[in-house]
Amino acid sequence: MDEVFEELASLNRLIHDPSRLAIMTALSSCESADFTFLQRLTGLTQGNLSGHLSRLEEAGLVKADKQFVGRRPNTTLSLTENGRKAIEQHWQRLERLRNAAQKWKKEK
Amino acid sequence: MRDIERIELVTRNYVQMQGLKIVPLGLYFLAVASGILGEPGDCTFMLPVLIGVIILYRLIELNYRRRFGWVKQLHANPIRDFLLSFLVFGLWWGAAYLDFTLELPVSLVGLVMASILVVIFARPSQRFRAHYLVMAGLIAIISLMPLAGISSGGEIIQPTGPIFNVIVGLILILGGIIDHFLLLNLLRPIEEESHGRSI
User: Fold this and answer.
1) What is the ipTM of this complex?
2) Which of A64, A89, B140, B149 is the most buried (most CB within 10 A)?
3) Would you list which residues of chain B are within 8 Å, Cβ to Cβ, of chain A?
4) Closest-CA distance of chain B to residue A3, Å
5) Tens digit of pLDDT for each residue in B144-199?
6) Residue-wise over A56-70: b if at least 16 C-beta within 10 A, else e?
7) Which residues are within 8 A (CB) of B122 and not within 5 positions of it... i.e. 6 or more apart?
8) Closest residue, chain A, to B197 (C-alpha)
9) Dihedral sign of CA atoms B28, B33, B34, B37 in order
């Protein structure tokens, strides 16, 4: 049981937030996506999405590329090498936790 | 967990789910079937209309980008996609040629069409497009109808016949509209600023 708690403690809190987990999962499913797509996918407000993206960018997990498409500003977002590894490890940890919890339930 | 599955599904298939892009092509096939673009082989109207279809495709693509955003897919491989399209095109025309020359009791071109739809559905990433499987089943039944004596050989789906064009047109239009609504259903309305996060 100790390893379950160790696994729980080692979860990346920055990624584990539901909104940021959704953003990271979306970006891990593509090479890059723009701000509008992430907003329509998550339903987050512009302010909330910007806030979460800034935190992920500061942590070096997400890369933002700002440019103009015609006259409109457009931000393309993608995962950094570290970001891709981090989300992969996070999902592996969650999977291990799920398996451990199921095993625990059966034993009880 | 379901929400994560939804997010992965939409992100991986966003380009394929932009179904309205192929609706003008479906309308083109219906217009050809109705004869308003002239006789088969007469390019006076067909060619300009086809160019219009390509322009509309691009405009609808831009509209998707403006309304729902843009995604660069993982492992995008335009050369592989081109070769696959070339293979499908070759199979299509090969079947059409055989239908013409051999006067088979079934419609090969219809069976090829049904097989293409089944192959699309069979890919694990495309399993959510069950409507393709239904359409494949219907086309296969129509193609095999002459065997049951319902119609004489190859008459139902002749490659240049109006029914062939109607079927292709309807597949493109219905498939495109269903894909579009699937996309709308899977995307989220953006919440009001005061509601905070929605996930």
Assistant:
1) 0.84
2) B140
3) 3-4, 7-8, 10-12, 14, 65-74, 76, 187-193, 195-199
4) 23
5) 877 777 664 445 556 556 777 788 889 889 999 999 999 999 997 766 655 544 55
6) beebebbbeeeeeee
7) none
8) A44
9) positive
